[in-house]
Design goal:
Elements lengths: L15 H13 L6 H14 L3 E5 L2 H11 L7 E5 L1 E2 L2 H8 L3 E5 L21 E4 L11 H11 L2 E5 L7 E2 L2 E2 L6 E5 L12 E5 L2 H10 L4 E4 L2 E4 L10 H11 L2 H19 L13 E2 L5 E4 L6 H10 L9 E2 L4 H7 L3 H4 L1 H9 E4 L7 H16 L1
Length: 372
């Protein structure tokens, strides 16, 4: 890496074949949800081994629709991790339900399964476990609790397409699984999302609600619900489809880069990610905790000045302004791990356009910034 170059946190690896795929759609004149969206749904469903995949406009829309088709609304509670991107809790608010926060494990940054049962009440209708930063969470315990207490599981696998627990793909063992194609994901459509399920009735409702509430039969549009315009365009689908052809190569590349970070930072005071045995991490983010004596925000600014685009990882959602004003929860007492991960968390650049020399230089700059 040349010293005068800036390494951003993420650059999507858009290649000529991806541009050609989009150009083909543009030249066809058929731009909205069509055959490319259908092909994307079929290929993702086959890859994950699920019956239904429903593409929509973005990852937040997936969670919003999931809650709606499960009939969740005012008076209901939905359990969510205290550490995630705010959309995980925002969608609960948007349907009029109440998010109930659970602290995380610092080792994995995922929801602590041992703390969930204490938060279950008669109003609990669902849980949204997040596979944070590309590492699957402990779905075995969560699904057992859901069965015992009869509530739904909506897996937020926005960062985790391809992640596994044993042979089980993240997003496939709950009632619904949600994925994102945001530019920081392994494959991207700019904006875009996708829901998967094995439930025929839920899949049918999702397809209707994403398209203005239209149930199209016998060539006629029948408006059967007050739906949304949450459609994915064929432009977006073509872009994702093209990248999906090299998806395993992308994941392998990210795994190799993660190993370089582990090697270069193993003798530092940074707390490195933990990958449990028999788990497959997709490395949407390489998220570390900075040493206690380091001010994380100052470090971010210093790294950017030195040419490295690092950033914080995820929000301690109940500590954000809206949630503090509404619920006034003492995060230091209730969610100490989520608060620490938010305040000390640092995401390092990791994407397939980087090479080993780039990452070693990132680590040199990082060490210099924290030892000075």
């Amino acid at each position: 890496m040349e010293k005068n170059l800036f390494i951003p946190l993420m650059i999507p690896d858009i290649q000529q074949q991806d541009i050609d795929a989009v150009t083909e759609v543009l030249q066809s004149g058929m731009l909205i949800q069509g055959k490319k969206v259908e092909a994307l749904e079929e290929q993702i469903a086959a890859y994950l081994g699920v019956k239904h995949a429903i593409a929509v406009s973005n990852g937040t829309a997936t969670l919003h629709l999931a809650l709606i088709v499960l009939g969740i609304g005012p008076g209901d509670e939905v359990i969510v991790p205290a550490l995630s991107y705010v959309a995980t809790a925002n969608v609960v608010e948007l349907v009029g339900a109440t998010p109930v926060f659970v602290d995380i494990e610092l080792e994995t940054f995922n929801i602590n399964p041992n703390l969930i049962e204490a938060k279950i009440t008669s109003r609990t209708k669902a849980i949204i476990p997040v596979h944070e930063f590309g590492l699957a969470c402990n779905l075995r315990v969560i699904n057992e609790l859901a069965k015992k207490h009869q509530f739904a599981v909506i897996e937020d696998a926005a960062c985790a397409l391809g992640a596994k627990t044993g042979q089980i793909f993240a997003g496939t063992s709950g009632d619904l699984g949600s994925f994102s194609f945001h530019p920081r994901k392994a494959i991207t459509s700019g904006e875009g999302g996708l829901l998967v399920t094995n439930n025929e009735a839920l899949a049918s409702q999702l397809r209707i609600l994403r398209n203005h509430g239209i149930d199209a039969r016998d060539g006629k549009m029948n408006f059967v619900a007050a739906g949304f315009n949450y459609r994915m365009t064929d432009i977006q689908a073509a872009l994702v489809l093209s990248q999906f052809q090299r998806f395993e190569q992308i994941l392998s590349s990210k795994q190799a880069l993660a190993e370089i970070y582990f090697k270069e930072l193993q003798d530092t005071d940074f707390v490195l990610p933990t990958v449990p045995e028999n788990y497959v991490h997709t490395w949407q983010s390489f998220h570390v905790l900075v040493p206690e004596h380091i001010d994380r925000d100052s470090l971010i600014q210093q790294m950017k000045e030195e040419g490295v685009g690092v950033n914080l990882g995820a929000q301690c959602i109940p500590n954000e302004t809206f949630y503090q004003r509404k619920y006034q929860l003492n995060c230091a007492d209730l969610f100490p791990n989520a608060l620490k991960a938010n305040r000390k968390g640092l995401v390092l650049p990791l994407y397939e356009r980087l090479n080993g020399s780039d990452l070693k230089q990132v680590c040199i700059i990082l060490k210099q910034a924290t030892n000075g």
